[in-house]
Amino acid sequence: MKTLLTQSGLKKTKPRLMVLNVLKKAKEPLTVEEIYQDCHKKYPTLNLSTVYRILDTFLEKGIVLKPLIKDNTTSCYILNKHKHTHYIICQECHKMIDIEFCPFADYEKEIAKLTNFTILNHKLEFSGICPTCKKRMENK
Length: 140
What we know:
The protein is an alpha+beta fold and 140 residues long. Helices cover 44% and strands 18% of the residues. The chain has 6 helices and 7 strands; from the N terminus they run ααβααβββββαβα. Strands 1, 2, 3 and 4 form a 4-stranded antiparallel sheet that branches. A 3-stranded mixed sheet has the order 6-5-7, with no helix packed on it. A hairpin with a 3-residue loop joins strand 3 and strand 4 (74-79). The model has no long low-confidence stretch (mean pLDDT 86).
């Protein structure tokens, strides 16, 4: 992680390293508040505004991605593993699962050809009800 910061031209500060560590351990995209809460446990003097600034810097440097919105109101962040990913999100519990494949690679090429755009990226997000929530709803 220290190398990731130095490669991006950033100083290795304790807050930056903590945010990176939280994102590295995360199994799903996290909100700023979730990142802050995890860091704050180990580093109580850390401010929420500092976490926002760190994430803005990481986003600018390509260290993190801001791929989707949790519950349609809150931005989330993930460590940029330079792997193209789509998500399906439960509308009830907000659980996020990444989809291991992209069915749109050929479609993206066709759109680029038709529009003469150089497509750099695309985002796709599915929403629905996860099996756990579906079962809970059926049992009500």
